[in-house]
Specification:
The protein is mainly α. It has a domain of 49 residues. The protein contains five helices and two strands. A two-stranded antiparallel sheet has the order 1-2. A hairpin with a 2-residue loop joins strand 1 and strand 2. It is extended. It starts with a helix and ends in a 27-residue tail after the last helix.
C-alpha cells in the first residue's frame, strides 16, 4: 500500500502538470515532428497496455483463450462491427475455448493434477457444493 504523503505528492505533481499546459500554451511552441511523435507514442502505449493485459495474468502467460478472444475483438473492430457485437463475440470465443479446456497455461494453473472447470486452478472460490473451496 502506498503511504499517504506519496499519494499527496503524486497528486500535486499531476495537478501542476495539468495546469501548466493551458498556462504555457502561448509561450511554448511544439515542433510538428514532436507533435507527430506524441501522437504515435500514445498509440504505442495503448497497444502495449492492451497486449500486456491480454497476454498476462500476474507474471504468467494468461493462456490461449484470452488472446484469442482479444484477437477476435480486434478483427471485428477493424471491420467496424458494432461495439456490442465485438464484446459478445470476444466473450463467446474466450468462453468457448475455456469450455473446451483451453484456458490457463500449466504454470499459471499450478499443475497439481486435474482441475475443476471454472476454478482455474488458482485456489479461488468456485461456488460448488463443498463451500466453494478447491481441494487438492
Amino acid at each position: 500500500m502506498m503511504p499517504l504523503p506519496a499519494i499527496a505528492v503524486l497528486a500535486a505533481i499531476t495537478y501542476a502538470l495539468r495546469i501548466a499546459g493551458p498556462l504555457l500554451a502561448d509561450r511554448v511552441t511544439v515542433p510538428a515532428a514532436a507533435q507527430r511523435l506524441f501522437t504515435s507514442a500514445a498509440a504505442v502505449l495503448l497497444v502495449a497496455l492492451a497486449a500486456t493485459s491480454a497476454l498476462t495474468t500476474g507474471h504468467d502467460f494468461a493462456g490461449w483463450a484470452r488472446p484469442a478472444g482479444v484477437a477476435a475483438a480486434g478483427l471485428l473492430a477493424a471491420r467496424r462491427a458494432p461495439f456490442p457485437v465485438v464484446v459478445v463475440v470476444a466473450a463467446s470465443v474466450t468462453a468457448l475455448l475455456r469450455l473446451a479446456g483451453i484456458q490457463l497455461s500449466e504454470r499459471a494453473r499450478g499443475s497439481s493434477g486435474p482441475q475443476r472447470p471454472g476454478c482455474g486452478g488458482l485456489g479461488v472460490r468456485c461456488g460448488w457444493g463443498d463451500g466453494g473451496v478447491r481441494s487438492g
